[in-house]
Design goal:
Strand content: 5-15%
Strand order of the largest sheet: 7-8-6-9
Radius of gyration: 26 Å
Helix content: 40-55%
Order of helices and strands: HHHHEHHEEEEHHHHHHEHEEE
Largest sheet: 4 strands, mixed
Number of helices: 13
Number of domains: 4
Shape: globular
Structural class: alpha/beta
């Protein structure tokens, strides 16, 4: 640079604009999101989304004591949605027990998914026996809760009865406990960021963190996968010169990434729902239409009512088309005093990306005093009939405030 020119610029009346021109032309500032460190972070995240023996060093407990319990000398059934960490937990248990010279057999049941009964049972037994021999054997089985039958009453009964024959380990961290879930998910990402030398505050805008948590529904693998896709979306727009959403990953970048992720969730849904696919899709369509009618991403179901619809909702939660948002919600309405409701959220992929809907309300059900946002009779999707002293018929829930 010419010192004289430099001096003239600094003395000029348009000081700020001249300095900006000089900075842009001669000292380009690197956008952190485009750095080689973030490249390294993206690689670490991509490599971590599938459970493996090498990945056990990154294992983080969703709740304190889970790992110790899983290593106990008891049979366990490990419940969790696809991607919640069932395989990661069992890989970690296998790794720790191997270090202690405890014989283990690790059998991935995905390998036998196309086998029919009784071939599947024989195949699993052969694989298990080939891995370990002995009589002091403790089973650790990972599965999706509402897609499994682990005990059937009869004479004799079949399977393992929870509490008697086996203990339960629940790996599902959900949006109901939003803050612990947020902390858990961000701890996972933070460890990769630390290895890559990246400060998350430098690449994630304020709203993006919460949006990533919502988009994942609390599922660790989905959180990492959507983060990786959000990184691609944000980098693509920056390379095209679009800085209107800033130089970091923003909430809208996450929305677009979640929309892209939707097709993979649909593939998982088809694979895991099996012969129940049409029934579950029909129920989900009813819920989706209701949410469009009330123009909100959340809906309420009265607590402790039993019906085929509530059973389907539980299955749709396990299949990740719905997410639990809040429990024990009360409604401001004289005829619903004492009633409790559970709140559920549509998966973000259902109304973002290509499915984005204008002015569709994202109900903020987390944070202090956030429950008030759910205490609306218009959000009630399913409840017991309401009776009044004079037996008058009240309006439908969707017409009440």
């Amino acid at each position: 640079m010419n010192p004289t020119t430099d001096s003239n610029i600094l003395r000029g009346a348009t000081l700020g604009s001249h300095i900006e021109i000089v900075r842009n032309q001669f000292m380009p500032r690197e956008i952190v999101l485009m750095s080689s460190n973030v490249d390294a972070l993206a690689t670490l995240v991509d490599e971590s989304v599938r459970a493996s023996r090498d990945g056990v060093r990154y294992f983080i407990e969703p709740t304190s004591g889970v790992l110790a319990k899983a290593k106990n000398k008891r049979h366990h059934i490990v419940f969790g949605r696809r991607g919640s960490g069932k395989s990661s937990l069992l890989q970690k248990v296998a790794s720790d027990l191997t270090i202690n010279r405890t014989p283990i057999a690790f059998v991935d049941l995905e390998s036998f998914k196309g086998h029919s009964y009784p071939d599947v049972l024989v195949s699993i037994l052969i694989k298990s026996i080939s891995e370990v021999k002995g009589t002091n054997v403790w089973l650790k089985v990972g599965t999706i809760r509402h897609r499994s039958i682990w005990y059937t009453y009869g004479d004799p009964p079949i399977g393992m009865k929870l509490g008697d024959d086996a203990d339960e380990i629940d790996l599902d961290v959900t949006l109901e406990k939003y803050e612990p879930t947020r902390i858990f998910l961000q701890r996972i990402l933070a460890q990769f960021a630390k290895i890559a030398g990246v400060t998350l505050n430098d690449i994630l805008a304020d709203g993006a963190r919460d949006r990533l948590v919502l988009a994942s529904g609390g599922v660790a693998r989905d959180f990492l996968t959507i983060f990786a896709q959000s990184l691609i979306v944000a980098r693509d727009r920056i390379e095209l010169g679009n800085l209107t959403r800033g130089e970091k990953i923003g909430a809208e970048d996450v929305n677009i990434a979640a929309g892209h992720q939707g097709q993979f969730k649909e593939e998982d849904f088809s694979r895991d729902s099996g012969e129940d696919r049409d029934r579950l899709l029909s129920e989900f369509s009813n819920i989706y239409d209701f949410c469009l009618q009330v123009n909100a991403n959340c809906f309420l179901v009265e607590k402790d009512i039993s019906s085929s619809e509530t059973s389907s909702i539980d299955e749709l939660v396990d299949l990740k088309l719905l997410h639990r948002a809040r429990s024990r919600v009360t409604i401001r309405h004289r005829n619903r005093k004492g009633r409790l409701y559970d709140a559920f959220m549509l998966d973000l992929s259902r109304y973002t990306g290509e499915r984005a809907r204008r002015n569709f309300e994202l109900v903020k059900f987390w944070g202090p005093d956030a429950e008030d946002s759910l205490r609306r009779a218009t959000l009630i999707f399913l409840e017991r009939p309401i009776t009044t002293k004079d037996n008058d018929q009240l309006p439908e829930p969707g017409n009440l405030e």
